[in-house]
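User: Sequence in, structure out. Go.
Assistant: Echoing your sequence, followed by the C-alpha cells.
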Amino acid sequence: MAAAGGANYWYVERDDQMAGIFDEEIEARNQLAALGYRVDKMLPEHGDKISAAELSEVESALGAAKKALEGSEQNALDKAREQVQRASHKLPESLYRAAAPGAGAR
C-alpha cells in the first residue's frame, strides 16, 4: 500500500509540473493573441500614418503570429510576440509624431 501511495505522489507531482508547462504556453498564447488583436484593430485607422515598408512589416508580423497561434510551440509563440511588438512600435510613434505640436497645419 505504501508503494501505491508513493507512486500516486509522483504521478500527481508530474501532473503539477506538466500543468506549469501548459500554463506557460497558455500565457504565451494569450499574450500573443491579445497583442495581435490590438495591433490588427489599430491598422485600419492608423496604418496610413506609417510608411508602406513599416506597414508591410506589421502585416508580416501579424501573419507570423497567426501561424504561431495555430501551433503549440512556446518558443514560436514568444518569437512571434516579440516580432509583433517590434513591428507595431511604429504605430504609436507615428501617432505621437502626428499629435505633436506643430505637426499639423495651422
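User: And one key feature?
Assistant: The chain has a mean pLDDT of 79.
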